Amino acid sequence: MAQLLGDAEIQSQASKLSGWTLEGSKLQTTRKFKDFIEAIAFVNKLVEPAESAGHHPDIEISYNKVKVTLTTHDAGGLTQRDFDVAATISQIN
Ligand SMILES: C[C@H](O)[C@H](O)[C@H]1CNC2=NC(N)=NC(=O)C2=N1
């Protein structure tokens, strides 16, 4: 199982991750698109990288907005996997 990161490490990595906020023991971003179709297209683009990483974001879709939340359920908090997948998601348009 992936190891939980310490508070200092979490703060340090979060400060380098543009567009994401720390919400307790979770990393979160909300992306806004032109419409529902574009929002779903973005979600579809997450599937392959998440599967490849073996790490899956929680996703909430509200019309043209997609809220993406990352935490490591198995470990009960943030691990390096969350930051790695967040960085990958940041590069998806
Ligand atoms: C066995 C498998 O790798 C695990 O159950 C993975 C799958 N994807 C996961 N994704 C997330 N976000 N947290 C997990 O703890 C997790 N566990």
UniProtKB/TrEMBL annotation:
<dbReference type="InterPro" id="IPR036428">
    <property type="entry name" value="PCD_sf"/>
</dbReference>
<dbReference type="InterPro" id="IPR001533">
    <property type="entry name" value="Pterin_deHydtase"/>
</dbReference>
<dbReference type="Pfam" id="PF01329">
    <property type="entry name" value="Pterin_4a"/>
</dbReference>
<keyword id="KW-0456">Lyase</keyword>
<protein>
    <recommendedName>
        <fullName>Putative pterin-4-alpha-carbinolamine dehydratase</fullName>
        <ecNumber>4.2.1.96</ecNumber>
    </recommendedName>
</protein>
<comment type="similarity">
    <text>Belongs to the pterin-4-alpha-carbinolamine dehydratase family.</text>
</comment>
<dbReference type="GO" id="GO:0008124">
    <property type="term" value="F:4-alpha-hydroxytetrahydrobiopterin dehydratase activity"/>
</dbReference>
